[in-house]
Amino acid sequence: MSKSSLIPIAFLVIAVIAFSPSKLFGQGGPALVEITPIVSREVASGQTFVGTVTPPRRALVGSAVDGRVIEVFFEEGDRVEKDQPLAQLLTATISLELAAAKAELDYRREQLREMENGSLPEEINQARARLSRAKVMAEFGQRELERLAVLRQKNATSQSEFDSARSIAESTQEEFDEAKAALQLAIDGPRPEKIAQAKAQVAMQEAVVNKLKDQIKKYTIYTRFTGYITVKHTDIGAWATQGGAVAEVIALDEVDVVAKVVDSQVAYINVGDSVRVEVPALPDQALTGRVEAIVPQADVRSRTFPVKIRVKNTIKKSGDPLLKAGMLTRVMLATGGRTQAVLVPKDALVLGGAQPVVWVIDPASITRGDQSQQAKASPVPVRLGVADGSLIQVTGAIDPSHLVVVKGNERIIPNRNGEPSLVNLVPNTATPSTSEVSQKGDGNVVD
């Protein structure tokens, strides 16, 4: 055989190896899984109701003041955080008023500080010097008056000259008394009443400044909780009126699924009950919630009561919520007496297909080696029932004495011939009996 004829055969061998069934199904070895017993116990019988995803909080954010919109920081669909600015109004005029009010406040504070500090030593020395000069002038005026009084008795001077000397003496004495009082005032400092008045003026001006600051804050419009913008009511250049709408915000970190239950069945539902929630638009999601409220007011036409089921939402890395307001849901609510049921952890469910599937293991198929344990897992289609804590009721061809895979089930590759698939068990996997798990409830369930 020539070399040229060998080349196609070599390529054929490589192709067969590359595209063998084991490669196509990614079977690099049995999947590593974790198992737990299936639970069998009594649960309340349930019924499916249609529900709608609604936001637990919804706000129409408005403007507290009139003003021109100069900036908008959001678009419809954006996620916004608590106290995040949404829009900014023009504040040029009020900013000037605030600057003037702050300057006036600084002036009044300095006045108060001057009063509280009292007189400077230089001011006291100046007052003493004025007192000394006034004393000299007063003593000179008194001596001059006494001299002219003697001369007047001897008719050696005129009456007008004597009267002028007396006037000067009285004036200089008054100036001396005034200088003496001024020195004492400089030593004592401002009166307590004056300081109290200055403090009141500072407080009044502080109130004016705070009022203007608060007004400026109102020119920035904020959201008061974390959520998503659903409606945009304004844009740059628009005139915002006091009380006018700027944006509509809804909270979706948690959502309420509202289902309407007839009056004959609502009595079986209790606040705090665990509820399984199905969203047709999200078939690969296993969701559970709890009854948050039962509105005690029925629709008089349909005789149904709104039941709110609170569900924790998943926020994607992009910020987009998994559950969106208005989505259609189906909820399984307890509406009757208790019945024996088979339950598995929600992690045991493999969703996304035409019907939910769980992988079950017969304990008799477990083989133990020195370093590992292996078992055979079989896929079982199931129908879902009521939720009970972290467990979900399932109906199907399941033996309660078997075990169920709760981790690694998405990596198990089904065999083409329908035979069970070989899996490796997580080392030291605990496999208590079904009766022990049933007595302990979901305490042994891996969640």
TrEMBL record:
User: What Pfam families is this protein classified in?
Assistant: Beta-barrel_RND_2, HH_YBHG
Coiled coil as a keyword of this entry, yes or no, is yes
The record's subcellular location field reads: Cell envelope
Q: For the YbhG-like alpha-helical hairpin domain, which residue ranges apply?
A: 97-216
Q: What is its main location?
A: other
Q: Looking at the record's lineage, which domain of life comes first? A: Bacteria
Using the record, list the residue span of the signal peptide; answer none if the entry has no such feature: none
Sorted alphabetically, the keyword list is: Coiled coil
Residues covered by the CusB-like beta-barrel domain:
257-335
Which portions of the sequence form the region Disordered?
416-447
Ranges of Polar residues compositional bias? 426-438
Entry similarity comment: Belongs to the membrane fusion protein (MFP) (TC 8.A.1) family.
Q: What is this protein called?
A: Efflux RND transporter periplasmic adaptor subunit
What organism is listed for this UniProt entry? Roseiconus lacunae
